[in-house]
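Moderator note: this is an archived Q&A kept for reference. The question asked for a predicted structure of one protein chain; the sequence and the answer are reproduced below.
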Amino acid sequence: MMLSGFFRLGVWQNFIRAWRSGYSGNLEGEGFTLGGVYVIGAGRQGVLLEHREKEFGDKVSLPSVLEAAEKIKPQAS
């Protein structure tokens, strides 16, 4: 996203939401890398959930993570 991420309305909305909720984490680092969340099942189940940040501050839905985690079947040994 580089510098263009600074000019996106959603990025500022996410920043304000985090600031109001009291976020005081580490703000050091490169600052240009977006993150993501994957839930991967055992064996051949593969990827059960994939969430990639589209802009800084995108949050994955906790209920969707829990739903995907409940779908993981233990691998037979």
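Archived answer notes: The chain has one domain: 1-71.
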